[in-house]
Amino acid sequence: MSGNPVVTSMGLDGAMDAAFPILQPGVGDTPGDHYLRATPETVMWGRLPCAADAPALTVAAGQSVTFDTVSHEGILEDQGKDPLGWFTAQGVPAASVLDDAVAIAAALSRDPLADGPHVVTGPVFIEGAAVGDLLKITVDRLDLRVPYGVISNRHGKGALVGELPRGEHNVSVFCAVEGRDAGLVGVLPVVEGGEGVVEFLLAPFLGTMGVAVAGDQRPHSVPPGSHGGNIDIKLLVEGAVLYLPVQVDGALAYVGDPHFAQGDGEVALTALEASLRATLTFDVVPRAVALAEFGELVGPLVRTDEYLVPTGMDPDLNVAMRNCVRAALSLLKARYGMDEHLAYAYLSAATDFDISQVVDIVCGVHARIREADFAGVARPPASSGSDA
Predict the structure, then answer these.
(1) Which keywords describe this protein according to UniProt (predicted)?
(2) Looking at the predicted structure, is the pLDDT value of residue 243 above 70?
(3) Three-state secondary-structure class, residue 173
(4) How far is it, in rounded angstroms, from Cα 139 to Cα 377?
(5) 122/164 same-domain check
């Protein structure tokens, strides 16, 4: 990691009061059936689980888990690998720096040239999940653990490679969180060192949710794939569902890369990165039901209260777009029996294809298919009564 980081900072201006409790490990509500802390023994840094990894927790299908997740921002080597020192330099009280971030930075190491930056909590073995099934992950609740986060452009990465960041520097922008009538907002100045006058609403989600891959090689944490991983789809807020094809028995699910907010594209390299406490429910969709509901999924599928969201991925954004169109066509055929040429026409007329991110080696595109548009389509009885 070359160069010294340029850190832009704002004061917290009283944001850390009783309205913003600090969710240290074991402090605060943990509503899941199980609670998994982020410790050096229950996280991986820079790599994702594979079939050879032992589970940190075993749960029954249908149960929920409350996870503590830790952002990589503040613990990275170019930030001193010292979250206490780094965050207190931005005006954060020492008591408001997460103890598990401090412990992970002190106990674990990674190869910055070979490994990714992300910290993931898990894996979790889900009883009854078999290869070929779908793992259904419902996002029940996302709680901010701290009232601050970081947005970074580093290592010559981002949408403007070779142009930004300027020179040899890595840029980390500290961002305080404040309360407004409309909800919680991130606050930024318009000039370095200026007053915080730019405000954007928070919409927390987990950038990384995945299942273990087959074999004994842990994947790099940055590129997403059929296993999920770092998909960075901002629609995965509270109430959303993610379906992933199970690749090893028990699924070995994991979560991480918590975000407070992100724009589609994530152009600077990171979103507003900050630690979350996430409560998720894990269900297993048997292969026969999965095929009837969605067809043969080769990658992640998101479902919100409004949309079905197939995905496409590839290092080439144009190819990722085409892969997403193919996935959407396949979904419409399998779920609604729609002829290909009619589905193609529908997608062109009625469906938005959004760029999830362009900064994670493998680019992502996702489509938003409104389920209400198909309310008049008769579904086969076998699928209408499923729990998918």
Answers:
(1) Hydrolase
(2) yes
(3) strand
(4) 28
(5) yes
